[in-house]
């Protein structure tokens, strides 16, 4: 008998030097006595912060323990053959009350060599943007290491970075190696490889509450950066009601947005993968077999690989990010 079912997890809250209050005021998540909340980790297999199941008979079980016991039943045969007992994706909400550091993440090869870890390719979906908000993704011209170092040493790195105005529902795909930062005033959903490796390049000379500047990783970043220029950094997609719309498809994950004002059934029988729902607007009842699970804005649901069909039942509509491997 299959003991698996769609899973909710306890949110992991993280205060940050740049964090704000939108996790509470927009997403309705109470982060208690923390002065702010810069990130929530909604689904994580990162060893230092493993998610714990919050619903049903498996409540209190960690994602790592469940994966170790259920293996391909939880994540799919092909996914398990590739990643083993390492859950491959990490889901976050990020609230930038101030600019994040300018940073870059290593790819799989470099991360394996230096940290015995996965690299970090990720995507951002903008949930809310204050007026005038922007972010940085990539370079605004062709750059090589020499020009990069010249601008860095002159304190003019931002002269060669691609800064873009941002609004709600914008999407950015950030393969490992792309220099980036989230600008202040943005609330973002992030889907990424399971990795917590960041090379911080510039941090605006900020100090923490002890008056200490955060560590930079200038040398480590040099071999991680993709110095190429690309024609577009923002992901172009057509907004459509009541039909799944693909946003990102890469070797690590595929993500679609479902913006529905009516109930819909989803058939995952052709997938050899788990499926993640991140509810970014509205609410629905997730129906599977004879069971039901209420899902609200800010919830993240892990649907095991063996779950073939579900129904998303709604009276007022919902918008979700639907992700899987493959």
UniProtKB/TrEMBL annotation:
The lineage of its organism: Bacteria, Pseudomonadati, Bacteroidota, Sphingobacteriia, Sphingobacteriales. Keywords: Isomerase, Metal-binding, Zinc. Zn(2+) binds at residues 105, 122, 180. GO terms for biological process: carbohydrate metabolic process. This is Phosphohexomutase. Its cofactor is Zn(2+). Residues 245-314 form the Mannose-6-phosphate isomerase cupin domain. InterPro entries: Carb_Metab_Reg_Kinase/Isom (IPR051804), Man6P_isomerase_Firm_short (IPR014628), MPI_cupin_dom (IPR049071), PMI_typeI_cat (IPR046457), RmlC-like_jellyroll (IPR014710), RmlC_Cupin_sf (IPR011051). Transmembrane segments: none annotated. The active site is at residue 200. One of its GO terms (molecular function) is mannose-6-phosphate isomerase activity. Gene3D superfamilies: Jelly Rolls (2.60.120.10). Binds 1 zinc ion per subunit. Residues 8-117 form the Phosphomannose isomerase type I catalytic domain.
């Amino acid at each position: 008998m299959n003991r698996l079912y769609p899973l909710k997890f306890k949110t992991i809250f993280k205060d940050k030097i740049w964090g704000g209050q939108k996790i509470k005021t927009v997403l309705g998540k109470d982060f208690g006595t923390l002065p702010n909340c810069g990130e929530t980790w909604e689904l994580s297999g990162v060893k230092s912060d493993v998610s714990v199941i919050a619903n049903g008979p498996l409540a209190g079980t960690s994602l790592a323990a469940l994966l170790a016991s259920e293996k391909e039943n939880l994540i799919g045969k092909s996914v398990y053959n590739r990643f083993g007992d390492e859950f491959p994706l990490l889901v976050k909400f990020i609230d930038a009350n101030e600019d994040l550091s300018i940073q870059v993440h290593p790819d799989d090869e470099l991360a394996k060599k230096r940290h015995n870890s996965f690299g970090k390719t990720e995507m951002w979906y903008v949930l809310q943007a204050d007026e005038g908000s922007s972010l940085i993704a990539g370079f605004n011209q062709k750059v090589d290491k020499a020009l990069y170092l010249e601008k860095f040493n002159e304190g003019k790195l931002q002269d060669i970075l691609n800064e873009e105005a941002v609004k709600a529902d914008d999407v950015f795909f950030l393969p490992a190696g792309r220099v980036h930062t989230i600008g202040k005033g943005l609330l973002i959903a992030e889907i990424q490889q399971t990795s917590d490796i960041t090379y911080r390049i510039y941090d605006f000379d900020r100090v923490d509450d002890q008056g200490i500047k955060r560590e930079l990783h200038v040398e480590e970043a040099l071999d991680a950066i993709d110095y190429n220029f690309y024609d577009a950094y923002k992901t172009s997609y057509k907004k459509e009601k009541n039909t799944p719309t693909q946003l990102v498809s890469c070797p690590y994950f595929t993500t679609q947005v479902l913006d529905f004002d009516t109930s819909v059934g989803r058939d995952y029988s052709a997938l050899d993968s788990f499926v993640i729902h991140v509810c970014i607007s509205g609410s629905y009842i997730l129906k599977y077999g004879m069971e039901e699970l209420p899902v609200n804005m800010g919830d993240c649901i892990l649907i095991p690989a063996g779950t073939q069909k579900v129904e998303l039942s709604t009276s007022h509509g919902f918008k979700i990010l639907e992700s899987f491997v493959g």
